[in-house]
Amino acid sequence: MSACTVIGLGEAGAVYATALVEAGHTVTGYDPVAPTTPAGVTRADSAAEACREADVVLVLTGAGAARAVAAECLSAMREETCYADLTSSSPQTMEELGRTPTRALFADVAILGPVPVHGARTPLMVSGPGAELLAELLGGVGAPVEVVDGGPGAAMAHKLLRSVVMKGMASVVVEAVAAGRAAGLEEWIRTQIAGQLAGDGQAVIDRWLTGTPKHAARRAHEMRSTAQFLTDLGVPAEMTEASATAMERMAAEAAQQHVKTPAS
């Protein structure tokens, strides 16, 4: 069993702290504002105090606190222990923190799902010198953990690329269903969306990659009309407007390329 520290005892931090206690680990926590402490967790008076005897430190604060927490904790930690940053800091910040002179092993951890829904079994991606230690610990509480090649920042880079699709698609679906509801066609648009998400995903990706630039000018005009339709329905059209802008850029780039490449 390991001596574990959880920095940040908010919603996600409390989930992991509780899971580690239930798995038999000794858990110390620190949070300057959280009003409660999970059962079985010993609460320290400072982050540095919480980290001194830890084998593994899990940081689950907001990304804005990542640098300050690392500065306080890393200098207090013992050699060959693991410092795991589970904040949503940028890949550049993770790289920077990973270069901090320390005896601990830094791990960049990307959370790939909603912790309130999946709990400690939420899938994780991890990179950096402390990746294997972290994977062993959280794999033991049921988390699917994928260790990826590369140093600190590699796991977060994977997550943010995924976010382009997952968060972007979610926003598009919210906008489309809101428009469908306003037009009295919610069930129909839901069926259309479900149909696009089913079936051969790679074929859909290839079709979009080929067809979107090729027909960008025509589709941009269609999306401007779509945005006006949503506006008339009283529905925000940020994602539709953004799609039109992107397609207009693609059309302009294609036209420029045509000018640079004389016909044979």
Name the descriptors.
264 residues, alpha/beta, Rossmann fold, 2 domains, 8-stranded mixed sheet, 11 helices, 8 strands, 54% helix, elongated
Short description:
The protein contains eleven helices and eight strands.
What does this structure look like?
The protein is an alpha/beta fold. It has two domains: 148 residues, Rossmann fold, CATH 3.40.50.720; 102 residues. The chain has an eight-stranded mixed β-sheet with strand order 3-2-1-4-5-6-7-8, with helices on both faces. The longest helix is centred in the middle third of the chain and has 29 residues. The chain is elongated and about 65 Å long. The termini are far apart. The model has no long low-confidence stretch (mean pLDDT 94).
Task: Reconstruct the topology from this structure.
Elements lengths: L2 E5 L3 H12 L3 E5 L10 E3 L3 H5 L4 E4 L6 H9 L7 E4 L5 H8 L6 E7 L3 H4 L5 E4 L3 H9 L5 E3 L6 H29 L3 H12 L3 H14 L1 H18 L4 H23 L4
Parallel strand pairs: 1-2, 1-4, 2-3, 4-5, 5-6, 7-8
Antiparallel strand pairs: 6-7
Helix pairs in contact: 7-8, 10-11
What's the end-to-end separation, in Å? Answer: 71 Å
| Number of strand segments | 8
Strand order of the largest sheet: 3-2-1-4-5-6-7-8
Radius of gyration: 23 Å
* CATH superfamily descriptor of the largest domain: NAD(P)-binding Rossmann-like Domain
What sequence of helices (H) and strands (E) makes up the elements?
A: EHEEHEHEHEHEHEHHHHH
Share of residues in helices: 40-55%
- Structural class, please? alpha/beta
Q: What is the fold named in CATH at topology level of the largest domain?
A: Rossmann fold
> Major β-sheet, in short?
8 strands, mixed
> Uncertain regions: pLDDT < 50 for 5+ in a row?
none
Main CATH class of the largest domain = Alpha Beta
Q: How big a fraction of the residues is strand?
A: 5-15%
Question: What is the number of helices?
Answer: 11
Mean of pLDDT: 94
Please name the CATH architecture of the largest domain.
3-Layer(aba) Sandwich
Shape by Cα distribution: elongated
Total count of domains:
2
